[in-house]
Amino acid sequence: MAGRFWSAFHRYIEFLRAGKIKTMDKTSRQVPKQRELEEIVRTLLYEAKEQGADQAEAAVSHDLGLSVTARLGDVENIEFTNDRGVGITVYRNSSKGNASTSDFSASALRETVRKACTFANYTAADKYAGLADAGRMATAIPELDLAYEWPLATDAAIGIAVECEDAARDYDKRITNSEGATVSSNSGVRAYGNSHGFLASFDKTSHSVSCVVVGESEGDMQRDYHYSAARDPADLESARSIGKRAAGRTVNRLGARKIKTTNAPVLLAPEVARGFLGHAVAAVSGGAQYRKSSFLLGAHGKKLFPGFFQIFERPHISKGMASAPYDAEGVATEDRDLVVDGVLQGYVLSSYSARRLGLESTGNAGGAHNLIVPANAEDLQSLQKQMHKGLLVQELIGHGVNPVTGDYSRGAAGYWIENGKIAFPVHEVTVAGNLKELYQRISAVGNDQDIRGGIRCGSLLIEEMAIAGA
Asked: Which of 54, 108, 144, 435 is most buried, judged by most C-beta within 10 A?
């Protein structure tokens, strides 16, 4: 491993000398303090008032990041990011105008507000437009432990990436190629304020390590991956563990075959189960509802899932990947039971979509926050036994989802299960059905929750799906 690291490090030095990457001095690596961004928001709101806006809201962000990719023991990519942005939205006589810039200078801020106010003169009046209700603004900002800096020097990041990929490449002689291992670290600050007098900010971080490798045996070639993501770098899996799991998943897929077209039970692994449920969340969003572009149109109060099935929104989980003290409009986020005993309790609403539907905001401008699906079963292996025979899906491919009708058809890869055990790997099949029916057919939720995203769900066992194969 040491030889590969120094090879990669020397390539990094060559990149520097060739000017292919730019270093940042110590000052430019520091994310601005929250109060600095809050002051920019104050400036924007004051300028909007001076220019005659009835209402205004402003958001400012600044993000710094480092991403390093090593491939075949060499540095393939090093990227530093230093992104910042300002957005101002004004309302005048129910007309809306917005503008944005990445320039934080006083003159640029004034010009951005001026543009937003000018645009408002040309947009049509919309009686539903405007800020969220003043009484819904967050008054207490909970500490959610969203920011954990990772003081990662570039050479250290290279070392982690090389170690991760080495673990994968050394795992089995059938690992013949690699798409690389990537180490990423990002930190940022968000500030938001509006003319109701609301002004708040918080900082957050996200870190990840991933690896993708290719295996080959007897003319068959397969690829697979594994990754770890967390707010706190101390919560990441070790680089070697990530590499080994990526390689293990790849080797296990070698010898994959098609199966005959059939109807059978399907078990979704946690990493794909959350996306499967994400279609339901999108369908009950306010935008989909008022535009009438949802297969769950008017579903409030209806039973969408089996009686054991629950979805809880918990925005204040410490270190949660989708945690937030308030939404994108300053509305306080709160615990909420979205689905109880299979019945939808309400929609996912911003203030605008709520007004269009004659309802109130649910504090979801910008999306839902940490949706949790409680288990009623054990882990993936126990669900395999419960399924007895069927398809275990570990990867879904393509975008064959119709959000209006709920028709679902996606390519899949995974394993065929016989007598509760893996019989052989499967590829080049399609799983299909209608989501309204498929959600009703969920028979079990595993306790092996994937917490790397905004939907925390374990394995999902579906009683039957159409499987198109050979």
From this structure: 435
